[in-house]
Every structure is written in C-alpha cells, then in structure tokens.
Design brief:
- By secondary structure, the protein is α+β, with helices and mostly antiparallel strands.
- The protein folds into 3 domains: about 1-95, 3-Layer(aba) Sandwich (Rossmann fold), CATH 3.40.50; about 125-190, Dna Ligase, domain 1, CATH 3.30.1490; about 195-385, ATP-grasp fold, B domain (D-amino Acid Aminotransferase, Chain A, domain 1).
- About 30% of the residues lie in helices and about 25% in strands.
- It contains 12 helices and 19 strands.
- It has helices spanning about 20-35, 60-70, 85-90, 100-105, 110-120, 130-140, 170-180, 235-255, 285-290, 295-305, 330-340, 370-385, and strands spanning about 1-5, 10, 15, 35-40, 50-55, 75, 125-130, 145-150, 160-165, 185-190, 195-205, 210, 215-220, 225-230, 255-265, 270-275, 315-325, 345-350, 360-370.
- Strands 11, 12, 13, 14, 15, 16, 17, 18 and 19 form a 9-stranded antiparallel β-sheet that branches. A 4-stranded parallel β-sheet has the order 5-4-3-6, with helices on both faces.
- The structure holds adenosine-5'-diphosphate.
- Adenosine-5'-diphosphate binds next to strand 8 and strand 16.
C-alpha cells in the first residue's frame, strides 16, 4: 500500500507490460479490488485500452523504466520482454513478477526442457539440434517422426512443425543463422496422447501456492478451441499428479503470479509437460466466471503478494469456447443481441479486437451441472460469432 506525503493510503499500483486481451481481463478485478492498473501497450487502440494505457516499445529500456516509475509491481501480458530490459528494472529497484530468472524458463523452449529435465519432471524425449544432421539422428532414434519447435517467440502453434525428414526444417535452420532465435532448434518425440490437459496454479513471492482444478483443453490447428473444467474423469491420480507437477515447477523455478502447465495425457497413461506459461492463460479463462477467484484477480493478488483467493468452482462444470475471427465477421457487438436472446446462461467476453481470420477475439463460458448441456450451450453461443 502506498501513502501520500500526508500519510493517506493510496491504492496499490500495478503495471502490465503488453496490451493484449490478458491485460484487458486484468482490468475488471483491478477495479473491483480498488487497484490502480497501468498498461504499457504496443500501439494505440490495444485490447487493454480501457485501462490507463501508455504506448511504447517494451524492448526499450528507457521506455520501460519510465513506465515503471512509481509502480508497486510490474507484471506481464506476454513473455517477450527481453532479459536485459527485465534486469534493468530489477536493478532500478522495481518489483518484477514473475522475476527475470523464472520468466527466462518460459521464454526459451530449450531452456524450459533443460530445467524441467534437471528437476526430474516428465517431458517428451527432446534434444537441441543445430543442423539437419543432428535432426536426422534424432529422427532415426524416434521412428522417423518428430516435432520441431523454434525455441522463442512461438504461439498458437506457430513455430511448431511435425517432420518426417531432416530437410523439412531447413528454412528454420537457415533463419537461426540470421535472427536472435539462439543457435539450435528444439526437437521432440511426436507424443501419442489421448488428450491435452492444463494445470493452473498461482504462487505468491512469499511462497503460498493455490491450484485450480485440472482442465481438459481441445486444440484445433494448434489453437486452443475449448476448455472443460474440471477435466472429465481426472479426479483421482491424474489430478493429483498434475497438481504436484505444477507446484514443483512453481516452487523450484520460483514462479510468481499465475503459472499454466500444459500437459499431454499419453495413450499409455503418463503425464508429460508440453509447455509452461507464466501469466494468466487461455486455459484458465473459464475461472473468471466458473471459480470463486478467477485467474486474473489471482494473478494481481499474487504479484502484489496479497493473500490468495479460493479456487473452488461455482458449478460442477464450466466449458469455455474461444471465438476466432472469421473471413466475413463483423464485430462481436453486432452478434451480441441474438446470442444473448438465445443463450442467457452464456458469459461473453469480447476482447475489443479487429476480427482478423484466425485471431482470438473473444470467448464464452457456460457453467452448469450437466457437462453435455454446458458443452452444447458454449458451442451454440460461440457459433453466433462464426463467419
Ligand atoms: P505454442 O507455443 O505455439 O502453443 P506448443 O508447443 O504448445 O506451441 O504446441 C502446439 C500444439 O502442438 C500442442 O498443443 C500439441 O497439440 C501439439 N504438439 C506440441 N508438441 C508436441 C509433441 N511433442 N507431440 C505431439 N504433439 C505436439
């Protein structure tokens, strides 16, 4: 809590770097909690424009230091802020959550695999490969199929490619030589999975950790399409194991704020970690409407080192469906009245973005005591926004 010169209490002041939908969705809980939220956005008219927004380049140290002046804590809408900028903030005495050392593990998929392997946590077989010869050797050891990933900057399946021959990643090896992508690509076994799951937890700097229920995530074309909370049939051993994995990552890597652990449930009943995200995550959007404390409120509490809220769900089931921009789409607002009339139990979240094809522009959540009904209603509500 801050004080004026006369000793009056002032609101906690939180700065968010990045003006996307994740920053936008931090605004309502910030308002409810009486927090002063500021956003450093990439451009005018960002998704987070409802908050006090400043436009500037998050890669520029002076810009970010000026933004951080007088803030109680700086946190993030994305993981792309360069390490030298993060460290400059810390050196200037700014509280940064998650901290640069933790965030580094989410910024580079090779570093992530190294760290998780050191911690003895379950991951797919992997290697860092610097050229097609090394990729060929990995393919030979893994049945001639593998998944190649660019270590940095990927999202929504961009930077992920299934390969069956070593020359299928030649363009990415060539790009390595030019860019700032490091000196190797990540290659992994092609995991045979039954389904994808996600475990979200939140951790305070002082150490408390809380977990939401394990969820099932359905991906289409590398993009999250639907999330079912809790993951059907995963109440016992699987949920316990996922919770242990996420807590271990949070504690050992020192993650503060929300941590999302994306998991594969393999056809032979193992859990393998796919990815980590150190911020609120698409697979936790259901919690805004479906849990006592949603992930955006929890993230704000955690980065401010305030007591964490209950993660208990409000209903037996919550189903979240993403809304993607389509070729012929008008704004979501055009479709809203018809959706509201048809699906009064649906909670609609419009990110205030131009509906470019394939872009995540909103989501809907439906909660209830019947899973099939909730799935049907969430899909029906989302379909109002399609093409
Ligand atoms: P992004 O960082 O773009 O989200 P991910 O690494 O999460 O990329 O991969 C996107 C999707 O690709 C995953 O959700 C999963 O469906 C598939 N995928 C990723 N890695 C593997 C793997 N090793 N085996 C099988 N499928 C994979």
């Amino acid at each position: 809590m801050r004080r004026t010169q006369s000793g009056d209490e002032m609101a906690f002041r939180v700065g968010v770097i990045g003006g996307g939908q994740l920053a936008r969705m931090m605004v309502p809980p910030a308002v409810h909690l009486g927090l002063d939220i500021r956003v450093l956005a990439e451009a005018e008219g960002s998704s987070a424009r409802l908050a006090a927004t400043q436009v500037g380049d998050y890669r520029d140290v002076d810009t970010v230091l000026a933004f951080a002046r007088d803030l109680d804590v700086v946190t993030f809408d994305h993981e792309h802020v360069p390490q030298h900028v993060l460290r400059a903030l810390v050196e200037a005495g700014v509280r940064v959550h998650p901290a640069p050392e933790a965030l580094a593990v989410a910024q580079d998929k090779i570093l992530m695999r190294q760290r998780l392997t050191e911690l003895g946590l379950p991951v797919p077989d992997w290697a860092a490969v610097a050229d097609s010869g090394e990729l060929a050797a990995f393919l030979a050891d893994h049945g001639g199929r593998a998944v190649v990933k660019t270590p940095r900057g990927g999202y929504d399946g961009k930077g992920v490619r299934v390969v069956r021959a070593a020359d299928e990643a030649d363009d990415w090896f060539a790009a390595l030589a030019e860019g700032d992508q490091g000196d190797a690509l990540l290659v992994e076994e092609l995991v045979e999975f039954r389904r994808e799951l996600a475990q979200l937890v939140a951790r305070r700097p002082s150490g408390d950790v809380v977990a939401w229920p394990l969820v099932e995530t359905v991906q289409r074309d590398g993009v999250c399409a639907e999330v079912i909370a809790p993951a059907p049939g995963a109440a016992g051993r699987v949920a316990e194991l996922a919770g242990q994995i996420a807590r271990t990552v949070a504690d050992e890597v020192g993650v503060t704020g929300v941590l999302a652990v994306e998991l594969f449930e393999t056809t032979d009943d193992r859990l393998l970690i796919n990815e980590l995200a150190m911020r609120p995550h698409n697979t936790g959007h259901w919690s805004i409407d479906g849990a006592v404390t949603g992930q955006f409120e929890q993230h704000l509490r955690a980065v401010l080192d305030l007591p964490l809220g209950s993660t208990a769900p409000h209903a037996d089931w919550s189903v979240m469906a993403n809304v993607l921009g389509g070729p012929e789409q008008g704004t979501l607002a055009d479709r809203l009245p018809a959706l509201m009339a048809d699906q009064p139990t649906a909670k609609v979240h419009d990110y205030g973005k131009d509906p470019r094809p394939g872009r995540k522009v909103g989501h809907v959540t439906v909660s209830g005591d019947d899973l099939d009904d909730a799935v049907w209603r969430a899909r029906a509500a989302a379909s109002f926004f399609e093409g």
